[in-house]
Amino acid sequence: MLEDDGIQITDSPDDQGPEAPYQTYNFSPGSNGIVCVADTFDQGAGLCCHGLQNADKGSSVDDRSGAEELGIGATKYRLRTMKWGITPSWSKKKGASVPKAINCRDDSLRTHGGMWQGMKNRKRCVVVAQGFFEWLNVSTKEKIPHFVKRKDGRLMCFAGLWDSIGNEDTGDKTYTYAIITTNSNKQLRFLHHRMPVILDTGSKELQEWLHPSRRRWTDDLQSLLKPYRGDLDIYPVSKDVGKVGRSSPSFIKPLNDKGREHDIARFFS
């Protein structure tokens, strides 16, 4: 589906093996997810494949002139599996006891410094999914899970940041990611005050976010992190989605009328 929207994919992970994406209707932190990165990925989203590999880390590159020189449409992309939940690269060992952030607030990227500094400059990605779950707080004891997807049925592409950590014993690298969130749009506000940053598949905004010539954080990149303007389909689903380890196609289907009436009756009983 990504290639149908002009995203040139040069490589994708195998469906089997330890690096295979976790296929489930109930995705949880720590699982292998699918992310899209520029084809220069291992050098960071900001390292351009045309002469910038050897640039000094401290040098200043004109991001916009680089984008114009290469042309946004010239960029090629790779799909990779990464674990959901950032393990910062400054962690000394794989599996070290460090906080794993599954989300990153957009406003935390406005200022210089902090744990996201290196990632926002060079390690930007797009996380690919059918949609996401959010729980509506009906009362202190009652929550209703909702599934959120695009109205047109296309894949959702969340703006994200990635990082990697090497195992000192084996030399292997573990790649992890976090999803960037922003204020909810009007459609989703009844459900939660935050939502993932959703970039339209094949859009100029998505390609700018991933473009390898952008090696430093700018106001232009920050401006891409905004509430989604397209139409969303939001509906309640089975509470079974809250059971860890369970997966079923029914988790992303609307509750049937009978089930919905039963739940509504419970709310007001």
TrEMBL record:
Gene3D superfamilies per the UniProt record, alphabetical: SOS response associated peptidase-like
Keyword field: Covalent protein-DNA linkage, DNA damage, DNA-binding, Hydrolase, Lyase, Protease
GO biological process: protein-DNA covalent cross-linking repair; proteolysis
Region (Disordered): 1-22
Segments of skewed composition (Acidic residues): 1-17
GO terms of molecular function: lyase activity; peptidase activity; single-stranded DNA binding
Family annotation (InterPro entries): SRAP, SRAP-like
TM segment ranges: none
PANTHER family assigned to the protein according to its UniProt record, in alphabetical order: ABASIC SITE PROCESSING PROTEIN HMCES, DC12-RELATED
Family according to the record: Belongs to the SOS response-associated peptidase family.
Protein name as catalogued: Predicted protein
Species in which this protein is naturally found: Hypocrea jecorina (strain QM6a)
